[in-house]
User: Fold these one by one.
Assistant:
Number 1:
Amino acid sequence: MKGAWQSIRKRAVLIALVAAGIALLPVAATLGATVYGIGVPASLLIAMLQAFAVAAVVIRPWVAVVTMMLGVVGTTLLVAPTATAPWPVPVATMLAVAITLAGLAVVKRWTFTATVWAVVVGWTLGVTALRPSHPAVPGAVAADLIVFAGVALLSLVVGVAVGRWSDTRRQLDDQRSATAREVERRELVEERARIARELHDVVAHGMSAIQVQAASARYRLPDLTEDAAREFDDVAHRARTAMTDMRHILDALRSDEADRAPQPGVADLPALLASPAHGGELVVDDQWRDDPPRDPLVGLTVYRVVQESLSNVARHARGAAVTITLSREAPDIVVTVRNAPPPAGVRAGDGGGHGLRGMRERAALVGGALRAAPTDDGGFIVEARLPERTEGR
C-alpha cells in the first residue's frame, strides 16, 4: 500500500511538471515574439527548451539543466530592451528557471543546484553589462536582475527543504519497515518457543515414565531373563537419550542464537541499559545487591522482562524517562519497570504485539506473576514478582 501511494505521488508530481511546461510554452513563445522582438522560430525554440526543462527536471535532471541554460542564453542574447516590459530576463524565463531549480534541488545535491544558480545569474549579469543601456526608467534593469536572482534563489531553498523532508520521510519509512520486520521475526521466535514448550510438556512426562519403568524392570521383575533385562536397559538408555536430545532441540528453538551465546542474566542488565536502543535508570536495593538471584532461569526471566519493557517504552513512549527497580520483598524478588508519560508530540506505535503475554508466560514459568498497567500520571508500569528458587530446583 505504501509503495502504491509513493508511485501515485511521483506520478502526480510528474504530471504537474508536464502541465506547467505545457502552460509555459505558449506564454513564453508569444511574449518573445510580440513583446521582445524575437523572431517567431527562435522564440518558439527558446520556449520549447524552457518548457522541456520544466517537464523533465525530475526524471532527466542533467538534460533539464542543459536545456534550461540554452533557453537562458538564447533569451538574454536575443531579447531586445523595451520601455515597459521586464529586461533582460522576461517573466516567463524567470518562471522556467525557478521551477527547474526547485525540481533540481529535490533530486540533486544542494551544492550542484547552487552552482547552476550561480552560473545562470552570473551569465545574466555578464550579458547585461555588455548590452546597450535600457531605455526605461533608471533602476529597471537592476530591479529585474534582483527579482530574477531572488526568485531563483528562493526556489532553490524551497527545493532543498522539500528534498530534505523527502529524504527524512523515506528514512523513517525504511526504519518503520525494518521495525515491523523485526517485530514479526520476534513474534515468530516466540511462537516457536511456545510450541517447543508445549511439545516438551506433552512428551517429557511419557518419556520419563518409560525410562523409569524400563530401568527398574530388572529389580521389579525378578523372573526376567538376562536377555529381557538387557532389552529393558536398552529401552531406558534410548529414553534418556531421546529426552536429552529433546531438551537440546527445545534450547535451540527458544532463541536463534542459543547455540552461539550464553543466555543473559541479571549481570547483563547494565550492558542492556547502555545500548543505544534502550536506556533508563537502574535502582538496586541493598538486599538485592547483597544477595542477587542465583538461579539462572530466574536471572534470565528478570533480564527478559526488563528487555521487553524497554522495547515497549521505545515503541509506545519514545523519549520517556524510565526507572528499573530491583528489590527483594520476602519471599519474592521484585522487578519494576516504570516509565513517565511520553514527551508532547510523540505518537505511540501500533499495538497488537505479544510482549506482555510473553512476559507473563516467562514469569509463570518460574512460579511468579506479572502486572502491567497505566499509571495515574499517564505513564506505564510493569511489575514482576518471582519466587526465590534454589538453583537446580
Number 2:
Amino acid sequence: MRLSILDQSPISSNQTAREALTNSMKLAQAGEALGYTRYWIAEHHDLPGLACPAPEVMLGYIGAHTNTIRIGSGATLLPHYKPYKVAETYNMLATLFPDRIDLGIGRAPGGSAEATNALNDNFLQKVYDMPNSVKELLHFIHNDLPSDHQHAKVTASPLPKKPPVLWLLGTSKKSAILAAENGLSYTFGKFMSDQDGIEIIKQYRDSFKLRKKDQKPDVILTVSAFCAETTEQAEEIATSALVWSLQLQKDEGHRGIPSIKEAMSYELDEKEKESIKQIKSKMIIGCPREVKQGLEHLQKTYQADEIMMITNTHRLEDKIRSYELIAQELEL
C-alpha cells in the first residue's frame, strides 16, 4: 500500500504563520526520509488557523528543500483561475523539480463567500464550466491543443520533459465521473465526507476512459489519522484537532490549533460532546498496530491504491512522530 501526506499548514495557538509554513517544509522533509510517496499541500483563503493560500508558492520552497518525494497541490481550486496560468505555473515547477510534481485540482471555493468574491467575480459560472476548464488544462499541460482551439498558438512554457501528473479531488459522483471521463487519477476526501464513498470510487473505476495506453484508474483515499506509542497518547494528541474543529464551527478557532492542555480544559456541553464523537468516528486514532489495521481495512473496503493521511496536531513533533510510527509499522 502506498502512503502519503496531506498538509493544510495549520497554525498552532502558539505560532506565527511563518512558523507554520516552515513546519510544513519540515514535514515534507520528514515524509521523504520516512519513505512516503508524496506530500501535498492544500489551498485555503482567509480561513482562521490555515497559513497557505498559494500551494504553488510553497511547492517551490518545499521542492528546494527536498530531493525525491513527489510534491503537489491538494488542491489547486481551478474555478478561481484560468487553466493557462495554472498550466504555466505547474509546468515551471515540473521543470525545476523533474518527475516530482502533482497537480491536484478541485472545485471548492476554499474559503468564505467574501473571500470567494474577492478572488472571483463569477465563481458559480466557473464551477459550472469546470468540465471545459479541466479539458483545456489537460491540453495545455500536454501541449496538444486542437488546431481549431482559440488558444491553439499558445504554449504553456516552459515545457518540462515530464509534465505534472493531474489528479482530480472530490467527494461526489460528479467529481468521480469528471475524473474518469478525462482519464485522470482520482482522490476521494474521506476526511471531509464519507457519504457514498465506496460507490463513488466504484463508479470512477467503472467509467474510466484511457487517455494513453499505459494509463489505468488510480485512487487515493484521504483520511485523518493520529498515531502514538499507545492508544491513550494518540487519543490525547487528537484532542487538539477535535476541539479545534468544534471551535471553527462556532467561529472561535481564530487562534489556531489549541494545545492538548487548552483542548482538555475546553468546556463542552452534551451537544458538543456528541458533535466531537461524530467527528472522531471518521478518524483513525490509535497505537501503530491499531492504525495499521484501520488503514488496511479502509484500503480493502474502498479499493484504494493509496492512503493519504492528514494529521493536524498542536506540536510538529507529535505530527512527525505519528507519521514515523505508521511508516515503521507498515514497513515503508
Number 3:
Amino acid sequence: MKHLKLIALQICLLITFSTAHAQSNQKVDLSKALKVGDTFAPPSSVQLMRGEVKKIDWKALENKVVILDFFDTFCGTCIQSMPELQELQHKLKDKLQIFNVGWQDKATLDKFYATNAFLKENNVNLSVIFADTYLKQRFPHQSAPHVIFLFKGKVHAVTGNRLVTEENILKLYNTGTISLPLKDDFGKGDLAGQIDNTSQKTREGVWITGYQDGVPGESMRIKKDSISGLIKTSFYNESISNAIKFTWAKIKPGNYITRAERRVFNVKNPEKYYDFGNEGDVWYVKNGICYERLDKMQRADSVQARIVLNDLHNFFGITSYKTMKEIECLILKPCPVKPYEGKALEGAMSYMGSAILATMTDMGEQFPPVLDLVKSKEKITIGPYTNLEEFNEQLAAYGIEAVIGRGMQEVLVIEEVN
C-alpha cells in the first residue's frame, strides 16, 4: 500500500508542476473578458520580441486573420504546436498574422528560446508578445494553449490550438465568419438546470448529453451540490471510454495508466468511443459526452461508481470489465549490472523503484505499455533519452533491461450488448 501511495504522489506532483500557473487559485476578474462577436479593443502598446513584426499596427492587421496563441514555457502542447504555426505563418503570410502571447518577462523567454533544441531544429521564429497583462485580461484562461481568432476588429473564436488550421483560417478570411468549439475555462456544467426546467426545485435524476460547448472537460467528480443539497456525480466533455475508465478507477483502482493499448473495444465503431486519431476538440464535439446524477443519499465512492457504471452501460447499450490479456509491452527484466559510462545526465529524474519508473515511462507513451518484472524498490535516476538503446544504457547501471515483447497485462474491455 505504501508503494502505491508513492506512485500516486509522484504522478500528482508531475501534474501539479505542469499546470501550476494554469491552475492558479487566484480569483480572476471576468468583467473585462471579451466574448465571440465582441469588438476587439487593442492595447495601446505591447512589448515584442522575435519574428518579423517590429511594431504592431492593429488597424492594418484588421485585413488579416490574427491569431493570439497564449502559451507557457512549461506547456509541452504549446511548444509542440509552434512549428505548425510557423508553417502556417510562412504559407499564409499575406492573410495571417500569428502572435505567441506570454506572461513571462523577456529574460525568461530569451533563455527559453536559446535552450529549446526542438524549436531551434524546426526554425521557429514567431512574433512574441511578452510580459502581457492586457490581453490576458480580455481573454482570461486557466490552461494553455488558449487561442483567439480575430478578423476585421472582431473576436471570431476563443478555442483550442488544434483548430488553428489552414482550412479554418481561410474560411474566416474568405467568408468573414466561422464557428469553432468554445474554450471557456470558467464555464460550468449544469445538465440538470438546462434540461429539467419543469420545476424550480432541483430533483433527483440522471442526465446524459453530448458535447457541451464552453464547458471545460472534467473527469469524474462526486460532491455535495451547494444549491440543492443533493449529492452530485458528474463528468463533462469526455469520451465514453474515459467515462468508463473513471468509474472503474473508483471501483477497482489500478497502479498503471489505462492507455489506448490497454483498452479493448468489442464494438462496431471504436472511433465513437476513443480519440484514436488524437484530433482533440474536433473529435470531442462529435463524440464527447456529459453526465450528471443527483442523489439524496451519500454513498461510498466505490458504491456510487457502480451505480454510475450501470447508468452508462444501460444508456449506451454496452458492458465493461477488466481482464488479463497478452499484449505488446516494454518489459523491464533483470540483467547483469553494467556501470553507466555515457555523458552527464542533465535534467535527470529519480524514481523510488521500478514500479514508479514504469508508470512514469507509460505516461510518456514513447514505448508500448510497460510490464515491470523487476519489482525493485531501489532509487533509479534516469536522464533524457531519445530511443530504447539510450534508455537501456542508463537502466543497466541498476541491473535492468527493457525489451519489446509480449506479456500479460490487465486491460479494460468495452463490449456492445447485442
Number 4:
Amino acid sequence: MISNRYASLLALLLVPLVSACSADPSVPQPRLPSSTACFITPEGSVPVTLEVAEDFGQRQKGLMGRKALAENEGMLFVYEQPQNPEHGFWMYKTLIALDIAYIGPKGEIGNIRTMAPCSSGNSGNCPSYPARVAFTSAVEMNRGFFSEHGIGVGDRLVVGEADCLAD
C-alpha cells in the first residue's frame, strides 16, 4: 500500500507529464473567432474569412495539426507591437502547404512567402520563413491563393465586412 506521502509526491510528478501531453502541438486548436476581410488589389476586392489569432498561445499554435483549410479561409495573426524583419513563421507540425503575407500597420502587404509543411517531430528540422520586412500582422492562406487571385506586395488587407463593401 502506498502511503499518503508517496501518493502526494507521485501526483506532483504526474501533473506536469499529463499537462505536457494535453498541450501536444499536433492536436489542432479549436477554431478561433473569425472575421470577414478582403484583399484589395487594383483589379478589385477578394473576400476572405479569417480566424483571428490574437494572443501568444493562439499565434504559437496557429494552423498546426490542421488537415485542411477551406478555399477562401485563412488565419490572421495580430501583434500588439511591430515585428522586426527577422521575425518569421515556421511550419512545425503544420500539415498544410501555405502562403503567408506579412502586413504593415496600414494593411499593406510587405512580403509574401511560400511555406512547406513540416510534420517532423523535431522542431529543429523545420525551416523558418522570416518576413524580411517589418510587420504588425500576417495572414496564412492555402498555397497559391495569393498568386491565383492576383494579390501581391503593395496590395492591402481590410478587415471588417463594412470596410470591404465600401471598397
